Amino acid sequence: MSEEPGTLERAVEATLFAAEAPLTIEALAAHLGGLATGEVREALALLETRYRARGIHLVERGGRWHFETAPDLAHLLRREKEQVRRLSRAATEVLAIIAYHEPVSRAEIESIRGVQTSAGTLDVLMEAGWIRPAGRREVPGRPVIYATTPEFLDHFGLASRRDLPGIDELRAAGLLDPVDEAMEAAMRFEPDEADESAAGDDENLAD
After folding, report:
1. pLDDT for 144
2. Cut 0.70: pTM above it
């Protein structure tokens, strides 16, 4: 018989269950009376293990924790007439470029794609909740730069940008046209390199 969960585990479980949005470890610690983040992290690890065989799982996406339906049971909760969000080819290319190169400006997106990008394409992605303005580049004109959101990671089942698939994986899955040069350019760098580039750009961000 498995050991009963402790008080802290139950408190973390209840907080996440009642939360309207995924929570970071720091937010959980603050909500629970200023606990040490290490204690909360340990409780999350125990809860994650307890829920692995259940109908819902405790998952972490982009540093935020929440409960979600187990992948093998997700079909039971989908409505028959579920509206599927379909992106245009242009929006798909722009989203891929932002995901692999963030933070990136509109001009940089256009340089990679080789064509102009309409403001409407960026608006569609922001309305979907998948990208956000992430400051301004400290160059003449101070253009807005864009980055992905935790909702983007959650929608595509990614724990972090390091889990983004490589170009060979996408092509093998039939999701990439072999002659699609824009998508090839978007994925020229590995996610790890993109993360390092993004970290180096942090000093250039303006509030």
Report:
1. 93
2. no
